[in-house]
Amino acid sequence: MKISRSGSSPSVWAPEEHYTGMVRLDGPFQREEGSRILGRTNTFEPGARTAWHTHPLGQTLLILSGLGWVQRRNDPIEEVRPGDIVWIRPGEEHWHGATATTAMSHVAIVEVVDDIASEWMEKVSDDEFRRSTS
User: Fold this and answer.
1) pLDDT digit string (tens) for 14-65?
2) What percent of the chain lies above the pLDDT cut of 70?
3) Coil, strand, or helix at residue 106?
4) For position 8, what pLDDT does the model report?
5) Fewer Cβ close by (within 10 Å): the C or N end of the chain?
6) Burial tier of 97 (Cβ tally within 10 Å: 0-12, 13-18, 19+)
7) Which of 32, 29, 19, 34 is nearest to 98 (CA)?
8) What is the band of 132 on the pLDDT scale with cuts at 50, 70, 90?
9) Is residue 133 within 8 Å of 79, Cβ to Cβ?
10) Coil, strand or helix: which one is 120?
């Protein structure tokens, strides 16, 4: 057993090339050799979001607080709230983040294959994001 204590690793800001707005990353965890699990808590300020991306073995999001949006490419935007669990299928193009007016935190869990956890694409444009508010 291994306990990773809260606050044992510093918060970091998400890389600008894969995120829009202020996104804080906390509590990263990666299992010992032999396991493919990788995860962390992401906190998105209002209007903040990921770029479009995929995961080779999918992704699970556990919504902790606030109000957020998730969208699969070419599908309507879905609203997510605390307690919701989102499963994103392997290879499914998607983005997720806060709504335009409310912050959102989630735990994101992925599995790594051949050292790849995510494949990043273009950023979600302001026009695409604004469409979610209409």
Assistant:
1) 999 999 999 999 987 777 777 888 899 999 999 999 999 999 999 999 999 9
2) 96
3) strand
4) 84
5) N
6) buried
7) 19
8) low
9) no
10) strand
Q: State the pLDDT confidence band at 106, using cuts at 50, 70 and 90.
A: very high
Residues linked to residue 80 through DSSP beta bridges, in sequence order: 68
DSSP string, 35-97: --EEEEEEEEPTT-EEPSEE-TT-EEEEEEEE-EEEEETTS--EEE-TT-EEEE-TT--EEEE
- Distance CA(11)–CA(42), nearest Å, equals 10
Q: Which residues 6+ apart lie within 8 Å of 26 measured at CB?
A: 9, 11, 40, 41, 42, 43
**Encoding tokens for residue 110?**
């992925």
> Torsion-angle region of residue 129: left (phi > 0), alpha (psi -120 to 50) or beta?
alpha
Asked whether the whole model's pTM tops 0.70, one would answer yes
Question: Which token pair is 8?
Answer: 């044992």
